[in-house]
Specification:
The complex is a heterodimer.
Chain A lengths: L4 E8 L2 H13 L5 E4 L7 H4 L7 H26 L12 H27 L23 E6 L7 H10 L4 E6 L1
Antiparallel strand pairs in A: 1-3, 1-4, 2-3
Helix pairs in contact in A: 3-4
Chain B lengths: L13 H13 L4 H28 L13 H26 L9 H21 L26 H34 L3 H10 L7 H34 L11 H28 L7 H32 L2 H12 L3 H12 L8 H5 L1 H27 L15 H24 L5 H16 L1
Helix pairs in contact in B: 1-5, 1-15, 2-14, 3-4, 3-7, 3-8, 3-13, 4-5, 4-14, 5-6, 5-7, 7-8, 8-9, 8-13, 10-11, 11-13
Chain lengths: ~180, ~450
């Protein structure tokens, strides 16, 4: 076959079928797998052995950066333009609390949004699986398992047969 | 610990939900009603534009404000709108974190409501500046005059609080929207819709890897949004409590304001829920059970707000301070007693009907109670502002406040500013979270089958 393949896409009826098939595929030795579902399926990440998400650490970094930026800004502004109001302290930490808190949250939330998109490789408007004939149902009510062509065990005929065996409603080849 | 709850009828299929909800933007079912509503909303928005132009050319003197009542409508409506916004975040964020699945049918339009209510709130401080084109002075930028904004002033906190709240709400809303935009993209048949949803969905494909990171980001953003809501409205109440005006100088203010905000916000969420479900025939997703729960939340937040009223009276009496007592007397029987008693009546009398199950579960009765609460909370903000200011410490500075035509026109105009983008949003995006509804439906079916 001259055409380069991206992988094989199998369609399943329910999350349970998908989880069972994924488990079988893992046991059969397939490693380079991905699943496409209309909503987050509980336990799928464990079956696929996905690494833990690290968005939270980025969020923590954002929070620290936000707090630091806010405090620096407020201290600097009052240092550069000291205004004596009734003898009140120039560096009034309690008065800085609100803005510091707001910017902590702001930086943290935006950092997580950007990190989530960045790590997911979004935006990426086209992707090989979009070429699959039945893939539009992945956002409706079907659950897909994709065995990538990069997988060591991947063999066009065997993998197709394996996925049909595992109970797939349809199995489709995805060109790269 | 969770009782078997069938909040969504399990007869429906996942595909059916996706088709029904994406169908609303893709094949809009209520063209005429939408156009009529849009016409009405645009007229109000036009009124706001006229009022703003008039304000910018002639100055804030066109409003009824004067010494000593120099805040009135501008801040009153700011607090009112901001309060309405809060329920959206609480519904989506707090209920997400506590795992209340009934939020799924409500969170999307509640968040949308938040966004536009916060915009309405945000324009008020800008309008009341007098010279609104200098609003950028609030930001720390290296001015040639060497003047920096004053971060020790509560008024400076405002701009940071509102901007943060708006930005974080927008980020949270969009994050939750991405999977549904992808669902709409996959259903779209017309080229224009395919391009619109294709770009806004950012190429989302529901990969397990994507969902994993997405879920973490979404939950943590919700976790950040909850204290943010509390902080923003506490900050608003600190603006009051940091002043020494009698009637404002009370420790109950932050929780009292936050709860009052949630109260009015849940009322508006109920109004929108009832309207949308009858408008688009969404009874299968926004069920009577949802209205029931909304009614209960409304009742609970209402009673907590009522506690705030009681505590305010207690606070004044316990302080024994002459001016506090005078303000209390003014609220009960002064020139603006109608706002106090109006607030009490509109907020708490129809509310008691919600003790009955049938009232909570019937759309139009819940709607009536909610409208009454929205009016009551508006009167409450008026009462807090004006009854405190019109008679402060010196008899020589006592004076009255009467809203002028432009006060009213600006206020009604902001309702247009809220409705126009909200109606456009109804037209463009799925108004109920598709993937979360499917997730819940799946869980319910699983529970049934054991």
């Amino acid at each position: 076959m001259a055409e380069q393949l991206y992988g094989v896409l199998a369609e399943f009826e329910s999350p349970e079928d998908l989880l069972a098939a994924t488990r079988q595929a893992r046991e059969a030795g397939y490693r380079d797998l991905d699943a496409f579902t209309p909503f987050p399926v509980e336990g799928l990440d464990r079956v696929l052995r996905l690494p833990r998400a690290t968005v939270s650490f980025v969020g923590l970094g954002g929070a620290i950066a936000g707090a630091g930026a806010a405090l620096f800004m407020q201290f600097y502004v009052n240092y550069d333009y000291p205004l004596n109001v009734g003898g009140r302290p120039i560096y009034a930490i309690s008065a800085f609390a609100v803005v510091t808190f707001e910017l902590t949250i702001l930086f943290s939330a935006l950092a997580m949004l950007v990190a989530m998109l960045w790590q997911n490789g979004l935006p990426r408007l086209n992707y090989p699986v979009f070429g699959a004939r039945r893939f539009h149902r992945a956002s409706r009510d079907r659950f897909f398992l994709c065995v990538n062509a990069q997988d060591a065990l991947f063999d066009e005929r065997d993998t197709r047969a394996f996925l049909t065996e595992a109970g797939a409603l349809s199995v489709e080849l995805i060109p790269r | 610990m969770s009782e078997p709850s069938d909040i969504l009828p399990t007869r429906q299929s996942m595909g059916g939900i996706a088709d029904q909800l994406t169908g609303i933007p893709l094949h809009f079912p209520a063209e005429r009603r939408w156009l009529i509503a849009m016409l009405f909303a645009s007229a109000l928005l036009l009124l706001l534009l006229v009022s703003a132009v008039e304000l910018f050319t002639r100055g804030v003197g066109i409003w009824g404000i004067n010494i000593p009542v120099n805040w009135a409508f501008a801040i009153h409506n700011y607090v009112w709108w901001l309060g309405i916004g809060h329920a959206g975040t609480l519904i989506s964020a707090l209920l997400l974190l506590t795992g209340s699945e009934w939020r799924n049918s409500l969170n999307r339009f509640a968040e949308t409501m938040t966004l536009f209510a916060v915009i309405c709130a945000g324009i008020y401080p800008i309008l009341h500046l007098g010279r609104p084109w200098y609003v950028y002075w609030m930001f720390p930028y290296p001015a040639t005059m060497g003047v920096w904004p004053q971060f020790r002033s509560p008024l400076e906190w405002d701009i940071w609080a509102v901007m943060t709240y708006l930005t974080v709400s927008l980020a949270f809303w969009y994050t939750g929207l991405i999977p549904d935009l992808a669902a709409a993209r996959d259903r779209a048949t017309r080229r224009g819709w395919q391009i619109f949803f294709g770009i806004t969905a950012l190429g989302w494909r529901g990969s397990a890897r994507h969902w994993l990171r997405w879920s973490q980001a979404y939950r943590l953003m919700a976790g950040l949004a909850v204290p943010l809501v509390v902080s923003v409205h506490s900050e608003v109440s600190l603006l009051f409590a940091a002043g020494q005006i009698p009637g404002w100088h009370s420790t109950i203010f932050p929780p009292y304001f936050v709860l009052g905000a949630a109260f009015s916000g849940f009322a508006v969420v109920s109004i929108i829920a009832v309207a949308l479900r009858s408008w688009f025939g969404l009874q299968n997703l926004v069920t009577d059970d949802h209205l029931d729960l909304l009614g209960k939340v409304l009742l609970a937040t209402g009673l907590m707000t009522a506690y705030g009223y009681v505590f305010e009276v207690f606070d004044a009496l316990y302080s024994g301070e002459d001016h506090e007592l005078q303000t209390l007397a003014d609220r009960f029987a002064g020139a603006y007693a109608w706002t106090y008693w109006g607030a009490v009546i509109f907020n708490f009398i129809p509310l008691q009907a919600l003790w009955w199950r049938v009232v909570r579960r019937t759309g139009w009765t819940l709607l009536l109670v909610s409208v009454s609460v929205a009016i009551g909370m508006w009167l409450e903000r008026y009462m807090i502002l004006v009854t405190s200011l019109y008679r402060d410490f010196l008899v020589s500075s006592w004076s009255h406040f009467t809203p002028s035509f432009w006060d009213w026109s600006t206020y009604f105009g902001t309702i247009g500013l809220f409705l126009v983008p909200f109606l456009i949003a109804i037209r463009l995006i799925p108004m109920i979270s598709i993937f979360e509804s499917k997730e819940l439906l799946h869980e319910e079916k699983e529970e049934q089958h054991g």
